[in-house]
Amino acid sequence: MDSSQEMTRGAIELVVLQTLSNYGDNYGYELIKIIAQKSESIFEFKEGTLYPLLYRLEEKKLVKSYRQVAESGKERRFYHITAAGEKKLASKKSEFETFLAGMDAILKPNHLSLER
Amino acid sequence: MKNRTIHKQYVDDIIRELPISEYTSRFCEELLEHLEDCEEDFNDQPGADSPKQTVRKIGDKDLIIRTYKEFHRERHSKLRRLELSFYVIFSWLIFFITSTIPNYLESTYLYSDHPAPLFSGIMIFCAAIFCTLAINYTFYNFLSVRLSLHSESDDRKQKLLVIFFFLPAISALVNLMTAFSAPGQAQLWGILIAPLPFLSAFLPALINFKIICKNKKNVGLDATLPYLTLTVFLVFLLLVAATDKILFLETLSPLQAIVNIFYIFHFILFILIDVIVDLPFFALFPMDNSNSASYVVPVQMVSVNIAIAAAYVMSLGAIGVLALRSARKQKNLAEKRWNRAVGLILCAYAIFMFLPIKSIDTPAINWNVPAKEISKQIEKKQFGIFYSFIKFKNDDEGYVYNYDTCSTENGFIAKQSSGQIFYFDVTGASSIREVKTVRMEKQKGKEYCAQIPTKGYDAESLFFFQEGWKCLDKEDTPLPMGRLEGCAKITYADREIFKETYEHSTSEIQSIEMSADGNWALIKMADVYSVDFLYLADLREPK
Lengths: 116, 543
Known about the structure:
By secondary structure, chain A is α+β, with helices and mostly antiparallel strands.
């Protein structure tokens, strides 16, 4: 896997964890809807690819799942962020913020002109 | 309802390509629920083609499969590395064992006078490669299934590979067993170990199918075949354990039939490969009808091979028909095509291979008196339909059932090198058909022929002629390979008993035993590979 893929996956993992942390336990379809809505459709990935990502998080014990009846009256698998997940989220967020700050600093035009 | 079918088909297409694990059924479930939720949302929008849009929204099948496989690979990456290391190390180890030991035995004992050590080397080398591949593939398959690395479609390819790798592998194993065992025991080993690779190939598939069955209900023939095989195998083992009479004359034909099913299955590819590998050898030694070795041996090898292949293919044909029947019932198009293809190939192959059956060659003797090839009769009963193949293997490798003979008051005794003793009672027999063959207790047999050793034979044995017997037109010119100093004509009391043609003179008389009344003779002949042929001849003048 190249670095851009790794980065994208890292970002999506962060988005999913943050959504679970902010909006509480939810199931796949609802999670996608929330993410699309809150990110103003910036994060509109192919929905079928969400589940392997959730499984990966579950394997890492960052989330856990359980089946429960949803508001629609149908039973769905809900995902819950664990304490380890919250911890990971915090560290990932910090990493990402540092990364973004660095990128921001480099990509700013005035920064380039100063260097010259 | 229609929408649900579209969704089901979409999810099925994805699941079929996925590695099987505890997440597979869950993924299937969640995708279906996701599609359902998504469709409900689209249904609220007027004019929307909800099923199509739903599927488009959830994503391209290949992308989903790729994403899932990526997750799966990552999950098992450590174990997979371990598995591959094991595979690499083990393959070399097996290859070393299977190639070195037989080669050593070959060079020191078996083929010490073989004209083409290169040929036998190639044979062993091929067997070793196949054996290595087969054993490794089992481990690979087994571990992979345990680690859930394969998808259902991968599994099909695997099953085929496993089966085809095992066909030659068993012959390599039997070769090894033959090298280690005394005459007679090798065949028993062969019969007993033959089902093992079959079982080991199917066990992982069985485990795999259990997982598949858990996730999907309709797997048809694929699911039942391994279970069926396992059941038959267990029944077979039980029968063998219960009777323990594989090599005895009392062996019943139903038991032989059960044994045959397994035994034959594993030899086909070996036989085909054997023939292919033999061809360059015979190309090196140009065909010449005046040279009996280059004439008889290839004919014998090919004809026996074809006969065994035909028997094997009958079993394949049965599976072919089963597959075709299953294809008719199958609703899933892919499954249907798969079963039909397999069925057609197997049936066509079965029909094709069944056509040219020919039996093993025996010395070309023209008898002038009633005579019966007793050794053939005994061995045929012992080995059933394997007789030709075992005889062929024995002829080719120098392992045979040799016989020691002696005469008693009322008949003859033949001691087989397997340790069994047979008594031929000629008392009151008005024709050769009435001569009774009885398997004697060993102790009793010893009492009768105390002077005869129970095992082995004297390779240096000379012509032994009793009074009244004459060998005429004995060939004394330098003989090419495969020909012995045969008597063109044998007479007793100036009466011609039999004659052999020079072109086929590949046998020589080892001994002649006469009955007390001088009416019967037990003639032992041996061919170039020291295979013994016992003939019982009625010497009485025709009435």
